[in-house]
Known about the structure:
Largest interface: A-B, 36 and 36 residues
Helix content of chain A: 25-40%
Distance between the termini of chain A: 51 Å
Order of helices and strands of chain A: EHEHEHEHEHEHEHEHEHHHH
CATH class of chain A: Alpha Beta
Radius of gyration of chain A: 19 Å
Number of domains of chain A: 1
Strand content of chain A: 5-15%
Oligomer: homodimer
CATH architecture of chain A: Alpha-Beta Barrel
CATH topology of chain A: TIM Barrel
CATH superfamily of chain A: Metal-dependent hydrolases
Number of strands of chain A: 9
Amino acid sequence: MNPDWTVIDGLQYSAWSREIFEQMHAGGLTAVHVTVAYHETTRETLTRLGEWNARFEAFPELIRPVYNPDDIAKAKTEGRVGIIFGAQNCSPIEDEIRLVEIMRRLGLMIMQLTYNNQSLLACGCYEDEDSGLTRFGKQVIREMNRVGMVIDMSHSAERSTLEAIAHSEQPVIISHANPSHFHPALRNKSNKVVDAIAANEGLLGFSLYPFHLKNGPQCSLDEFCDMVAWTADRMGVDRIGFGSDLCQQQPQTVLEWMRNGRWSKAMDFGEGSSNNAGWPDPLAWFANSSDFPGIAAALMARGFSDEEMAKIMGGNWVALLTRVAQPRDTTGPSKEDAA
Amino acid sequence: MNPDWTVIDGLQYSAWSREIFEQMHAGGLTAVHVTVAYHETTRETLTRLGEWNARFEAFPELIRPVYNPDDIAKAKTEGRVGIIFGAQNCSPIEDEIRLVEIMRRLGLMIMQLTYNNQSLLACGCYEDEDSGLTRFGKQVIREMNRVGMVIDMSHSAERSTLEAIAHSEQPVIISHANPSHFHPALRNKSNKVVDAIAANEGLLGFSLYPFHLKNGPQCSLDEFCDMVAWTADRMGVDRIGFGSDLCQQQPQTVLEWMRNGRWSKAMDFGEGSSNNAGWPDPLAWFANSSDFPGIAAALMARGFSDEEMAKIMGGNWVALLTRVAQPRDTTGPSKEDAA
Lengths: 339, 339
């Protein structure tokens, strides 16, 4: 793998440890978008961020925070993996529009509007009926645009996703999902959504979560490369990246928290089922972050050029974040500027 | 008043409005330390910070946030008043050591360890018995040192204050109180505390709250200047500044919130009494921020030089904040630094 590339994994949620951070280094990762909240309230999200500060103190030679897109280049220079904070749900802002700016100041660079269910903002991909963006949702989208927080519709339903793209003044992303054309999971995205993301100059991060892949854990690297090639043709090579959805060493209780939060009395099985309630078996060719070079080699063998690979492996993520998540001067012009 | 001075008021808590911000401009203020929390929980503190963001959006030509000491010089250049966030109590960090760093990232530059009562950290000045710093309190002090948050003991009891000074690796301040030598209010500070603050290179901000002054609302500007002169002699001219404790246009309910929070079923009257339960009458010579030039003129007439006045009016505050509240790189050295 070309060491000059900036390599970004656009979604992970593991039981973080020295071993896992060392695997990121072994895999040549420059930065990783990590999930800090699924159903956490505002207050609980602060505890999650505090836990990350504890990791930054414990492993200063391995990781560093990414508060702004420029910090990714710093991570590369320093030889540390940059940690990009994101939420898979809007629970960190509760019902308060002003918390968007507060959370952005704390480094939350990416936020999903929904996680599977209806939220205060929009509809999730597992609801029966999608009534689109809510009144609050429309305001939050513009506030996210204003303060430089990326709108992620990975777990959202189709109408809500298309409406978010139309309402946003900035590109919208799908950080971790695959085209339904490749595998028709509820979490994967129709051609209509794929095309809308491309047209709005957003980004699709390819998921390596077996439930999102044809043949599940048996999906071959060749089949995965087929999907990447198809999507590159459809969306353009500037619109794709990785969002592996890697969840390492998490117990079943964490999977149940992700799926059930505090909303369900009955057990909800998400992409699984009562007969298949656990974590899926891992792919043979992607057990952890150290396997990225193997995927890159397969894509190059498939015919992607070095320049194209630099974009797919992370350059597109950097360009997207630099455009959308740059910190804005939200305090308005000074007297001098206005003069 | 010399327009080259950086003028800082080290404590205000008013019903913020355009009028009040314009009075700050009329008074030549460069920056003001404002209270964002008395008894607010972590979650409630975020709402208070969000309300400040709303003010920064509404009045961009008048005010700007001060996240770091360097922002004070920017405020001066821009002709906007810098707003320095502080808490008068440790309620914003609840029982969680990691919230110190989170709150500092949100701009909380100054925090009192107690507000009149016993807290999780130390003892307040209205308790009968002061058992000094708690186990949590000692850890929080070192964490505040580490992340660059100033320790303020304005409302703390004597033993706790002296122990905080001894335990801290950075100077400790009294943002708003006067020497008991001038007026023996419970909130004012003994010679022992005054001397300890001076010896640790901290800062005492003179209060203009009538309950902290000899003769209350009838205190004359001459008497106030006597106190400043006495304190300058005792502590040194580098160790003093202003912390007016100005509370403009606040209703009685706010005074009751400050005094009672959620802890008291009976009405607590703080520095007042059941016969004197309201806000004190204002001083004739200090109704709002626009009156600072008059105080400065009186002090110059008393014999303070321009150089000394530059320190007292704000230079000492800038030096203290620059030394204590500089943002630290809390993520440790990078590989490169370590090499």
